Amino acid sequence: MALTGRAALVALAGTLAALALRTTAGLLLVDGCIVVAILADTAMAASVRRLQFSRSGDTRILMGERGATTLSIVNPGRRELRGLLRDSWQPSAGATERARVRIPPGGRTEITTTLEPTRRGDKNAGPVTVRSVGPLGLAARQASRDVPWSVRVLPPFLSRKHLPDKLAQLRQLDGQHRSLIRGQGSEFDSLRQYVIGDDVRSIDWRSSARRSDVVVRTWRPERDRRVLLVLDTGRTSAGRVAGLPRLDASMDAALLLAALAVRAGDRVDLLAVDRQVRARIIGANRAEVLPLITDALATLEPELAETDGTLLATTVLAVARRRCLLVLLTDLNPAALETWLLPVLPTLASRHQILVAGVTDPRLAELTAGRADPAAVYAAAAAERAVAERARGAGLLASHGVEAIDAPPDRLAPALADGYLALKRAGRL
């Protein structure tokens, strides 16, 4: 049983009346009437334990967007239910939890809960609490019921806005304005007449002998290549840059590259590794791979431990036996690279084309310009040292023939996509 504000007002009024009477009998009479009214009101309230609940609605929501779930309530009793309902959710689900309800006998109503999640992951509905108020409005019956429902909050994919531009570059590379290039691993496209400036190595002598003119082979970037995305979910991925964890910026870049590679006709796989393999999407068809990757990324969280380089290398070599493009999203901090990546890098580089991408802090560029006072000079020196350290990390990777991309969070995704397109343009995939 729960008392309402009206019951408190009635009790106050009764107390004032009893004080006016100035007798014990009057006080007992007033209090007794109030208690009887409360008990009678509780007895006349509709039962909440017999209510029947069910849920429907969204099961997937992009972070930053709105979703909704619907709670259906059936009142099988013979009394009208009037009261308040609280549909509790995890705080990060951003739910509107309270609603007034009025359900006639044998009737049904639906309560829509709007969700505006602020974090990725699975958001679970808590218990539904219903307070059924009696006809006098003095007291209420109250009970809670578990009505399970789960909504998965997906990464926001903010870099989607860059996809049309990158697709236009891809079409220029391998579409109506196909670039005719010759390089390692490129596919034969067609024959055309030789013009001054063509590489003599592209001349097809056998075909030229059958014609009255010299012809050359034209080439295009290979399709149906394999791109293996590897996310480092170790301790460095937990660092926040421009208000976001590095892991979130890496996810955004991985989604843009996956969408672009799928449109290019390449096969895309995903691994997320720290001390163990956290996510694994291998061998999915092109129509399903992007939803599967998005779904897997939704529940990833940084692990506050150093990444196991040996585990990463053995997992990559086990799932990618043929040469592919290995895209590793990690931090270019040389201390971390020397700890786990550099010892296994020669083995990986001998088998695969490797592209490493990391998130740099745009605040470093701002700090390096500070000269206003001694504190600003000290901060500038520290920022210069951090920039030099990251450049050293990129140099260590370059010494093993590995390309590195270091960009702020809002530029990492398009920079990585440009790196992928440059490799296709050069015929290195």
Please provide a written account of the structure.
There is one protein chain. Helices cover 37% and strands 28% of the residues. The chain is α/β, with parallel strands linked by helices and 429 residues long. The protein has three domains: 1-154, Immunoglobulins (Immunoglobulin-like, Sandwich); 188-220, no CATH class; 223-425, Rossmann fold (3-Layer(aba) Sandwich). Strand 14 (240-241) and strand 15 form a beta hairpin. Helix 5 packs parallel to helix 12 (409-425). The N and C termini lie far apart (70 Å).
Distance between the termini: 70 Å
CATH architecture identity of the largest domain: 3-Layer(aba) Sandwich
Biggest beta-sheet profile: 7 strands, mixed
Number of helices: 12
CATH class descriptor of the largest domain: Alpha Beta
CATH superfamily annotation of the largest domain: von Willebrand factor, type A domain
Backbone shape = elongated
